[in-house]
Amino acid sequence: MSKFAKWLGAGVGFTLGGPIGAILGYALGSFVDGFSINDFTAEQQQYQQQTQRTNHRVHATAGDFEISLLILSSVVIKADGRIDQRELDYVRMHFVNMYGKKRANKAFNLFNGIIKKKISTREVCMQIRQHMSHASRLQLIHFLFGIAKADGVVSTSEEQQIHTIANYLYVNDYDYSSIKAMFYDESDSAYKILEIEKTASNDELKKAYRKMAKKYHPDKLQGVGQEHIAGAKEKFQKIQLAYEKIKKERGLS
């Protein structure tokens, strides 16, 4: 087994099986001659078999989050029928920032294989939502909007694809609209981010801010690795900025 496959196998758990495992096998096989998903170590194969026998609920690791990002990113990038270099650059840059250049290069090599594969978004999302926390799934949606906006505008097809992914991940419309508003410069974006109407009272505004700050606090992502905290902080900061903007408009201290 190649060093690349060993690197991948060491960092993932639930993603070794199911539809995601099949995608990984295809992607690795595209640049590792004769490779298949069965070429992981004996210990990892045993882990998969035990998981399937006992229907054990395995929680996401940093590696699982990484693989989920790669696969869903490829779906969004292809949503408008073309692969934009700026979007590819965004994915690479984001991975370099999170993991460092060496690990990011390995991830992007894998991504080049994934993006060639036809993917069942529904099946992939079903596998992700069984193991990944709600906070982690919200972070995935935030990242996908960042990719879509990398070329300056979120196209209709990209937004529709992200919405479909959000539905499959059981992200409700309130949470989806909140994250979406973080990437649109509209007059009511701040209110959408806090999931309230413009007619909300000042007390309702404060209550909404406390609720959203708690929901999007970076500590919610501790389970999937420190490398993802930066993205969570960015999302959390947008909640704070939305609150400050509305307070300023209303003359609140």
Q: In a few lines, what is going on in this structure?
A:
Pfam families: DnaJ (PF00226), TerB (PF05099). This protein has 253 residues and is mainly α.
Description of the structure:
This protein is mostly helical. It folds into two domains: 171 residues, no CATH class; 81 residues, Helix Hairpins (Orthogonal Bundle), CATH 1.10.287. It is 66% helix and 0% strand. The chain contains 13 helices and no strands. The protein starts with a helix and ends with a helix. About 4% of the residues have low confidence.
Topology:
Layout: H1 3-11, H2 18-29, H3 42-54, H4 62-77, H5 85-99, H6 101-114, H7 121-131, H8 134-148, H9 156-168, H10 173-181, H11 189-193, H12 202-215, H13 229-250
Helix pairs in contact: 2-6, 4-6, 4-8, 4-9, 5-6, 8-9, 8-10, 12-13
InterPro entries: DjlA_DnaK_co-chaperone, DjlA_N, DnaJ_domain, J_dom_sf, TerB-like
Keywords: Membrane, Transmembrane, Transmembrane helix
Organism: Tenacibaculum geojense
Q: Key features?
A:
single chain; mainly alpha; Helix Hairpins; transmembrane helix
Strand content: under 5%
Low-confidence stretches: 40-44, 51-56
Q: Kindly report the average pLDDT value.
A: 81
**Helical content, roughly?**
55-70%
Please compute the radius of gyration using only Cα atoms.
19 Å
For the record, the count of structural domains works out to 2
Topology as a string of helices (H) and strands (E): HHHHHHHHHHHHH
| Separation, N- and C-terminal Cα atoms | 61 Å
Please report the total strand number as a whole number: 0
Number of helical segments with 4 or more residues: 13
Shape: elongated
Largest sheet: none
Q: Strand pairing plus helix content: what structural class? A: mainly alpha
Protein name: TerB family tellurite resistance protein
Keywords: Membrane, Transmembrane, Transmembrane helix
Transmembrane segments: 7-28
Domain J: 189-251
